[in-house]
Amino acid sequence: MALPKEFHEIARRVNNWGRWGAGDETGTLNLITDEVVRAAAGEVRTGRRVPLALPLRQDGVQTGVIPGRVNPLHAMVQLNQELFGPGTVACSDDVVTMGLQAGTHWDALTHVSHSGTLYNGRPADTVTAHGGAEFGGIDKVRHLVSRGVLLDVAGARGVERLAGDHAVTPEDLAAAEEFGRVRVRAGDVVLVRTGQVRLYLAGDRHGYGHPSPGLSVRCPEWFHARDVAAVANDTLTFEIFPPEIEDLWLPVHALHLVEMGMPQGQNWNLEELSTACGETGRYAFLLSAMPEPFVGATGTPVAPVAVL
Q1: Does residue 85 sit within a domain?
Q2: pLDDT computed for residue 67 by the predictor
């Protein structure tokens, strides 16, 4: 089924192809300039560090709904092995097999395509079985440190967790700005809290995934107008699931990654951060969220840290 006219109209309004040159592979991360990072460092007042990643574990957020996206399978390959004879230093080593988007992660710009194209008009078939992403892989993102802003939509609405059928709207984002007495500006990384991860933390893996609140198809225009560098939230699907428009699957993914060239993150744990921001009355902070540089990968695990 072809994408509807409504999708293509939004796509035209948020499209960034060519904005940073025909060969650009990092999209809106170009908005994180040296000046933006310098200003972000000024947000640090207490030095309090808040981790935002879920633990990588075999009973993680994946339930088998998405084929191949397996939770980490961890195995030991050496146990206190004395490599140079008895009485010498011993080593323990381990290996892991996992889906790169299985836990807290970033989606690279090549994670989705639509109409046969990737960001900047590159052909979707440049992602291959053996080489992965020839263009725009996560390894092209060499650093990701900026001003982070928590838009606590659940907090602004006075609830611990949004209802499963709640589509986060631009009005919700603006209300969360007011709630946090903060203003999103160019080059920011926006973290949108729905509270949905509370289900996973309470042991309800299936309820965490579906039904899920998430971003509405109306949000990309809000982020585009503010020149946001990247967005992450605390859900499995990022956007509302099931979709708000019948049979229109993953439209926000396509608008962010393909049209805007804006990375997005899922499965971020924003609960401790919400508490910390509430205690300090400050919803902006220095955010370090460096992607693991897997060459040709369409996503990567990340262990973000907010510094208040």
Answers
A1: no
A2: 87
* 102 contacts: CB under 8 Å, gap ≥ 6: 56, 60, 61, 62, 69, 70, 71, 72, 301
The answer to whether residue 200 sits within a structural domain is yes
197: left (phi over 0), alpha (psi -120 to 50) or beta: alpha
Q: With beta carbons less than 8 A apart as the criterion, state whether 50 and 271 touch.
A: no
Q: Is residue 70 part of a domain?
A: no
- Structural domain including 27 reads 5-62+98-307
Sheet strands side by side (includes 49-51) = 49-51, 305-307, 284-288, 145-152, 189-193, 230-233, 264-266, 105-107, 299-301
The pLDDT of residue 246: 86
**Per-residue confidence (pLDDT) for residue 1, from 0 to 100:** 63
Burial 213-241 (b: 16+ CB within 10 A, else e): bbbbbbbbebbbebebbbbbbbbbbbbbb
At 289-305, the pLDDT tens digits run 999 999 999 999 999 99
The pLDDT score that the predictor gives to residue 74 is 96
Ranges of the chain whose pLDDT falls below 50: none
- Please write the tens of the pLDDT for every residue from 166-189: 999 999 999 999 999 999 999 999
* C-alpha 41, offset from chain centre: 21
78 domain-assigned: no
Q: CA-to-CA distance for 13 and 71, rounded, in angstroms?
A: 37
Give the CATH number, domain containing residue 224.
Answer: 3.50.30.50
| Number of compact structural domains in the chain | 1
The reply to whether the predicted model has a pTM over 0.90 is yes
